[in-house]
Write a structure and sequence with these properties.
This protein has 269 residues and is of the alpha/beta class. It folds into 2 domains: 70 residues, Ubiquitin-like (UB roll), CATH 3.10.20.310; 135 residues, Rossmann fold (3-Layer(aba) Sandwich), CATH 3.40.50. The chain is built from 8 helices and 12 strands. A hairpin with a 7-residue loop joins strand 8 and strand 9. Helix 6 crosses helix 7.
Length: 269
């Protein structure tokens, strides 16, 4: 009797093998994975605790020194008081931006930079307002490049700076336009020939006319035409290169530069 040959579908066998593989796959998450996550979490928490301790409690990072730089007029002690920062404060707990804003409330400061220097130092760099001219109105005031009017500090040297006259501080605080015109004139003089500034003792201003200058030697009045100011300054610079004219400054009453075709020099009677 002939034996019957059995036949098995290969696709059925493959299906059974795949199912067997799926049944034998280990569960997720595995104990090893959970253990690794747990160990990493413990390490992370430990690192955080250590970092927090170093930042907030370690004596290594507590403030021991505050260095102030670029202050020429304001005493260092005044800047330190204004900063509001106490020695012993954790260095990383000091809000440097808030300290800078607090210092900028001082009108004599135009800019402030505050930074940390490890392990225990705070650096404060200041930019003070620098006088470019001064006013006298019962007290002596400094004026900076922006027209800011402040009471002169003892350390400020004004002997080589021009005096601005003609209007009171009260008037200028209401309307700064004449003062800004005077400062603009001084700026342009410095651009054309900075040596002229050493010959100027006074800038006179009012509400109705252009600024005019008075010279150190002889007190001669120098008048300008506003719309040709650079040309006028250049002419004045060329005039003062004449040694003979410089020797006669004590006898000159006025130098008029308002004319386009000539310079008018009036002598004292």
């Amino acid at each position: 009797m002939e034996k019957k040959q059995s036949y098995q579908n290969p696709y059925h066998r493959q299906y059974r093998m795949v199912n067997r593989d799926k049944k034998e796959k280990p569960p997720f998450p595995s104990p090893q994975f959970l253990l690794a996550v747990f160990v990493l979490a413990i390490i992370g928490i430990g690192f955080y605790k250590f970092a927090d301790y170093m930042i907030t409690k370690s004596p290594m990072f507590r403030l021991r020194q505050i260095r102030v730089s670029n202050n020429h007029y304001l005493p260092e002690a005044q800047i330190l008081r204004s900063s509001g920062v106490a020695p012993g404060t954790p260095l990383f707990r000091i809000p440097v931006d808030s300290v800078a804003m607090r210092l900028l409330q001082n009108p004599y400061l135009e800019g402030v930079s505050v930074s940390r220097s490890l392990p225990s130092t705070l650096l404060i760099s200041v930019q003070e307002r620098v006088p470019v001219a001064y006013l006298i109105d019962r007290r002596v005031y400094m004026v900076d490049h922006s027209g800011k009017i402040l009471i002169k500090k003892p350390a400020m040297q004004l002997k080589n700076l021009p005096l601005i006259t003609g209007l009171s501080v009260k008037e200028l605080l209401k309307n700064r336009t004449p003062l800004l015109d005077a400062l603009d004139l001084l700026k342009k003089i410095n651009e054309v020939d900075h040596t002229l500034l050493t010959l100027i003792s006074e800038v006179h201003i009012d509400h109705n006319s252009n600024p005019c200058l008075f010279l150190v030697r002889g007190g001669a009045r120098v008048e300008f035409k506003k719309n040709t100011i650079y040309k006028n300054i250049y002419l004045l610079s060329e005039l003062f290169k004449n040694a003979a004219l410089l020797n006669q400054l004590e006898q000159i009453k006025k130098i008029d530069l308002k004319f386009s075709d000539r310079v008018v020099i009036s002598k004292k009677s």
